[in-house]
């Protein structure tokens, strides 16, 4: 989708392969009213079994319901949580877990946004896509470190080359 004369329209052309999207450059919106909930810099991962994205922080347009819920079965068995609602349209957008067994300890106090309730605006392509079409799984830290190491090595080579150029120019003058 994209803005065209102040309305949202479905894009005809394909955005780039959704697995290759840089998740840092996106914002999350309510699927019903397009209210902004957060950005890709807050993403901590995905809980596929619950269909949720884990975020560290969200905007004030997400309201935490006062009522505490518990479940005896399913993914949230033995958990105490509250529903997250859109401030504008009051629709369900996720949960926040207050207490849980150790298997969900890493999700406590994080915002679990329900992917089917979200759309993502991709800043690089000015496109709106459904959150369910994007994977938010994080790379293993080893992979990320190797990638960063390659980038640093490339930058180091550029710096050495620039230093050599500067030295060559200073000996000529």
Topology (elements, then pairings):
Layout: E1 2-4, E2 7-9, E3 26-30, E4 36-39, E5 43-47, E6 52-55, E7 62-64, E8 69-70, E9 80-86, E10 92-99, E11 111-114, E12 118-122, E13 127-130, H1 141-172
Antiparallel strand pairs: 1-2, 3-4, 3-12, 5-6, 6-11, 7-9, 8-9, 9-10, 10-11, 12-13
Supply the key terms.
alpha+beta; Metal Binding Protein, Guanine Nucleotide Exchange Factor, Chain A; 4-stranded antiparallel beta sheet
Structure description:
With 173 residues, the protein is of the alpha+beta class. The protein has two domains: 137 residues, Peptide methionine sulfoxide reductase (Metal Binding Protein, Guanine Nucleotide Exchange Factor, Chain A); 35 residues. The chain is built from one helix and 13 strands. The strands form three sheets. Strands 5, 6, 7, 8, 9, 10 and 11 form a seven-stranded antiparallel β-sheet that branches. A hairpin with a 2-residue loop joins strand 1 and strand 2. The radius of gyration is 22 Å and the shape is elongated. The relative contact order is 0.17. The N terminus is likely disordered.
